[in-house]
Amino acid sequence: MDLTNRKIAIIGLGYVGLPLAVEFGKHYQVLGFDINQSRVDELMSGHDATLEVSDSELAKAECLTYSSNKEDLKSCDIYIVTVPTPIDDSNSPDLTPLQKASEMLGHVVSKGDVIIYESTVYPGATEEVCLPIIEKISGLKFNEDFFAGYSPERINPGDKVNTLTKIVKITSGSTPEIANFVDSLYRSIITAGTHKASSLKVAEAAKVIENTQRDLNIAIINEFAKIFNRLGIDTEEVLNAAGTKWNFLKFKPGLVGGHCISVDPYYLTHKALEVGYRPEVILAGRRINDGMGEYVATQLVKKLSSQKIHIDEAKVLVLGFTFKGDCPDVRNTKIINVVKELRDFNMSVDVFDSWANPSEVKDEYGLDLISEIKPGYYDGIVIAVDHSEFKRLGAKAIRQYGKEKHVLYDVKHVFSPSDSDIRL
Questions:
Q1: CB–CB of 21/40 below 8 Å?
Q2: DSSP 3-state of 242
Q3: 177-212 pLDDT, tens per residue?
């Protein structure tokens, strides 16, 4: 495959787009495009605030340039779309970013160009929503004048082991020839290899069930935890015992947030309802996981009450706000549910997280993070995220933040059962 005279545009330079742009930029001419000028400026300075790509890796992408100017996209002929696909307040798919990206491409696409989508969607969305927009604006005919592919992202934010090139990439194309082209394009940078799906819909469906399956696995563990808590059994001990069997899946209970696992199932259920099927198991799992913030808050309240600590105006410290440990990503974090529930009990809640960007947290959630922790000040302490710094600090040092009589709730099983007063 000759890409000597071709140029790749990566649309969206977030957790998914930037690693992809960097890898392609080591081999081909690449334009990294983002509508956020401050993000472009940051990357041009040689730093990635998401920490997905190190400064040294950024420097290796010698053929990668950045821009927020839509006119610059006209110099490209392969477009890869990696914009977010969130849900709205009613848990319905919000395709606005994807639609806007498609509208923009409609103004720049030319004959012979290939547009590849990586954003997670429900099966059929690329052909039903995105491509008609491009056709309408460009005046070009899909599969005659321009072509499409779908290759779902599999980025795991904060994971420095399972990185882009080490994860098998699913590929697909709108014609057999384009499918081969898309597969060859990705195979040139993915050392783990590729899996060529027979259609865009198959590739879309494969992605959306990956995270739905994981969501359901965590949901049943969360339900186990609720049962075991009532029985006075430590959940982690039960899971460790059951995990000695070779085919037991080792998931842990917790708050399911982030941009994928807690979002993607709703894309599948939306499409299922649209075609007349009401999914039961998937939605049941979502209800369990969406309710874990309230459950954690209620468990803490019960424990505080049992220790004769007054609930009204009690002071609580929440350690961690990002959706997962050792990662700055606060998108769709469920820690905010815990904070809101505790405040509904008229408690004073402070949140500390050195990984999270304070301005981003303020803009997105209206929450002010604290930068320093007062020792001997709190009635309750919640370890909500398993950051390495909390592990290094140790339970004894963390307890120093509490009053003489306080409750330590280890949501993420950071320490042993004997180190905390309550665990999920």
A1: no
A2: helix
A3: 999 999 999 999 999 999 999 999 999 999 999 999
